[in-house]
Design brief:
- By secondary structure, the chain is mostly helical.
- The protein has two domains: 38 residues, no CATH class; 43 residues, Arc Repressor Mutant, subunit A, CATH 1.10.10.
- Helices cover 53% and strands 0% of the residues.
Length: 94
């Protein structure tokens, strides 16, 4: 049940309200339920990576570094590394 609610704070509040109602401790506000809204994080690689990082990544990848190693080094997922390599025209290994 939590899986369906976990990504939506407004739904999480509803779930917590239901859970508290079961134990007879109804929250009065979202703050009482522990719902904390956070600013949306940028998910664009161009905002995450330093200028020239994709070129450096391509060079390291061609020299033998794995997508997982590059992801750790540059703070992105290995899937993002592979996507960047594909966009840069770097041939897939192995």
């Amino acid at each position: 049940m939590l899986l369906h609610y976990s990504n939506s704070p407004e739904l999480l509040f509803d779930l917590r309200r239901v859970m508290q109602a079961v134990t007879e401790q109804e929250p009065e506000t979202e703050e009482d339920a522990g719902v904390v809204s956070c600013p949306s994080a940028s998910r664009k690689l161009k905002d995450t990576l330093a200028p020239g990082a994709a070129d450096e990544m391509a060079t390291l990848y061609q020299a033998g570094a794995t997508a997982k190693e590059l992801g750790k080094r540059f703070g992105i997922s290995d899937r993002s590394v592979r996507r960047l390599m594909r966009k840069a025209g770097v041939r897939k290994r192995g």
